[in-house]
Amino acid sequence: MLSYIARRILYSIPVLIVASFLTFWGLRIAFDPLAKYRNLHSPDAAANLLQHKKELGLDSPIAVQWWHWLTKALHGNLGISQRTNNPVFGELIHKMGTTVHLVFWGTLISALLAIGIGLYSAVKQYSAGDYIFTGASYLGIAMPPFWFGLMAIVIFVTWPVTTFHLQQPILYSIGLHGTGQSGIFNLDYYRHLALPVATLVVQSVASWSRFERASMLDVLSADYIRTAQAKGVPRRKVIFKHAFRNALIPLVTVMALDTAYLFGGLIITEQIFSISGMGRYFIDSLTAGDAPALLGWMLFTAFFIILFNLIADVMYGVLDPRIRLS
Amino acid sequence: MIHKHKRYAQVLAGVATLSMVAAACGSSSSKSATPSTKAPSSNTTTGPVPTGGTLTVGAEQEPDCMDWVGSCAGSSWGYWMAQVTTMPSALIPLKQADGSYKYEPGPVLSGMPTLKTTPVQTITYNINPKAVWSDGVPITCDDFKYTWQQIATGKNIYDPTGYTGIANVDCTNEAQPVVTYKQGQTYSGWMQLFSAAYGIMPSHILSKGDRDTEMKNGYDWSGGPWFAKWTKGDNITLTPNTKYWGPKPKLDKVVFKIEADTAAEFQAFKSNQVQALYPQPQVDVISAITSGSLPAGAHSIASAQTGAVEALWIQNGKAPFNDKAVRQAVAYSIDRDAIVKQLFGGLGVNKAINSLNPFVLADYSDQNAFSNYKPDPAKVKSLMTGDGYTMQGGFWTKNGQKASFAISTTEQNKRRQLTLEALQGELKGAGFDVSLRFRSAADLFGKDGPNGDFQMALYAQQVTAIVPGLCAQFCTKNIPTAANNQTGNNWQRYSSPAADKQLQIVDDSLDPAAQMAAAKSGDDILAADMASLPIDPLPDILLWSKNVVGPVSDNAIMGMFWNIDQWGCTGGSCS
Predict the structure, then answer these.
(1) A74-78, B9-13, B95-99, B549-553: range with lowest mean pLDDT
(2) Cβ distance A76 to A89 under 8 Å?
(3) How many angstroms separate the CA atoms of B19 and B460, rounded?
């Protein structure tokens, strides 16, 4: 297993290098790294511009510029944000710390619900419950997060306050903590977390439960399951011991990739619920044309996508020893 | 000094007094017209304001940094929330009874500074003997000198205009800084010095290290009524500065909660998570106010007496707008009043602005300069046919080329999109083939503007000080060229010796009367040439809940929270 992981990590390195170059090249085309300095009002702006051009190495070929950036990035130096004047690496770590709250809770709850619903729908195929979950899934997939988020705020935050004349809402819609609050072991945190996580969960559960249902149905119609049933193995044991583990394999891939994308930030959810994570960082940087920040963001995101691909592969091995052996 | 403020997305190139604001920019000015203020009025209490309580305010934007003089500054919200409340300012712009704005001495001074123009320009300030920093150290001439040195010689300063010409800040008398300009150098905007978005910085604290490092992520000192604590990504919290020598803040705490989404911001207001808002004049905001869906007892003000101008900025160097007749014909094709009424009529703002200078600079502009540009098909026909165009297939055509052009604006701004769609329809009816170009703020202001890669663009510019002057945007010397590395701010590529002369007087003269006369004359030349076309007064909108009391009012330059130290909460709680 260790050699397998090592091999996959080695395969990932050229992918990351190519991704970083394409990102660097694309951003150089899309954004002028000197735009910020052009807009300063200094009387000697022209001279300053030349100085910054030299400092940023913009007079070198693009490949040389990329190589300089990459070697620094490998040492944890992703440059200075043109927007905030702070090191990009530190900012990304900080933003990631916020986004992790949503990703962790969102993925955990979604996974539990999706597996449960998928399992139930497959085992009780064409039952009333299956139809209800199927309909609800399509509804969840069809609802854009910005719409669901706003509706959730109206229904669960604004409506109780205005209807029952509450001084404070039961659930909050701004940030992850109330003023002066911190940490995760307090009710305030969960009152803030509920709606953004729900916004994420609705979409994830909707699609993941469909995967799990389809996968479980495939497995349940497999020969070895029929054999087990014919041999009189109890149905519960057939489902949970023989079918369930194999049915998880396709879902693991989807979950790993989806989770990896979430690390890039839940752009809409973070915007609506005023959570300053990776998604907001991306939007703010994009709007400001902050090339160093965008480069760092994309490198982080690419890293997590590759990492979670690796995790998915490893999970394959855990769930299906034949893959590990091959 | 010019400080460009971003309200929402991006701060852009600013100039002498005007600054460009991106995406869903802020306020604007109404030149001609009436204050256009909707009831109720600004004061929500007549008796004494109660003390104590916490007020939570929804903030649409988080500042990029709190080094107010650095290149990372420029956020309107940063200025409104934390700069105005913590930085001592020599002079502050206050609204007068007639609606105009004038500089008055801030609490740090004991009176108006005195100006001498001969033999060189000197300004003498008298520091209020009670003025101290939050650690009890008196505010002295050393602080003025340090501020000057940092701005004039620092690296990556936002805008050192006005400070680089200073020869010395004489601190012979620590309570009386004397600013002396270099021989032959004058600065007509001297009232902005140590004021506006910069203020005065504490030498005894900052000189020990690097100013930018000490300030950019927030600071724990103050020279104003409040301390500002910045919890990045979440809020800026104000708490009273007990050493402040002026009137003490009434509230125990003010929390500016960052809430970037307009729709969610309104829900937060309705659900009492925040008790005050200062929203952009966007379609959904106006709709929420005019539909009466605000919480019971909530107050709102919409003021058109603001510091910004939203206009159609025209690239005068590019066809078809390198032709004055076409520019004028386009202006005579548009019913600007109808567009403004459609956008802001619900707030009582019905008239277009008629100057490229905002209302707060009314004394320094001809607020009727563009008033002749009203829909007039006969004039359009006369101008276009006189210029060699003929009408073919419903469009003006010359040498086989249709009179076609693109109007650019910032993307994802519903109000601007509606404006452009209305303009497109009107202009098509007048024989112009118009396409719309939606650009990111970074592209429009970082690339298209400096490179002249636009024909006509709709966006707003906002002043942050009462200093007149359109030279930066319209003088020939400020056209971006290869020679100045595209750093000029005359993105319109407008060039007129007559305008240059007048606008340069506005920039250079120390005589207010001469400045006023030249500014009015400059406005008239720009209008006659149709250098660009002012459109609408983006109103400032203030919302606050029934529990918030005190002299709540807008300051078109310092924002809604300029006097938040005098606000209070009924019953000890704003929520």
Answers:
(1) B9-13
(2) yes
(3) 8
Contact B159 A274 (CB under 8 A): no
Q: Please answer whether residues B313 and B450 qualify as being in contact, where contact means their C-beta atoms are separated by less than 8 angstroms.
A: no
Of B71, B212, B270, the CB nearest to A36: B71
Other residues' Cβ atoms within 10 Å of the Cβ of residue B115: 13
Beta pairing, strands B401-402 & B308-314: unpaired
In whole angstroms, give the CA distance from residue B298 to residue B414: 26
How many whole angstroms separate alpha carbon B522 and alpha carbon B518? 6
Q: CA angle, A285 as apex, A182 and A76 as ends, to 5°?
A: 75
- Quote the tokens at residue B151: 């701005």
For B195, the token pair is 């004021």
Scan for tokens 């707003």, then name that residue.
Answer: B460
* The pLDDT value given to residue B1: 40
- Residue in chain A nearest B484 by alpha carbon: A46
Q: B525 and B496 in contact (C-beta within 8 Å)?
A: yes
A287 and B15 within 8 Å at the Cβ level: the answer is no
Phi, psi of A23 (to 5 degrees): -65, -45
Number of helices (H), then strands (E), in chain B = 16, 25
Confidence of residue B36 (pLDDT cuts 50, 70, 90): very low
Strand partners, A263: none
CA distance B232 to A277: 11
ipTM of the predicted assembly exceeds 0.95:
no
Which of B194, B180, B185, B175 lies closest to B116 in space, CA to CA?
B180
Number of residues written out for chain A: 326
For residue B224, the distance in angstroms to the closest alpha carbon of chain A comes to 22
Residue pair B95/B101 in contact (Cβ under 8 Å)? The answer is: yes
Q: Name the region of B14 (left: φ>0; alpha: ψ -120 to 50; beta: rest).
A: beta
For residue A66, give both structure tokens: 């990329």
Distance CA B306, CA B461 (A): 11
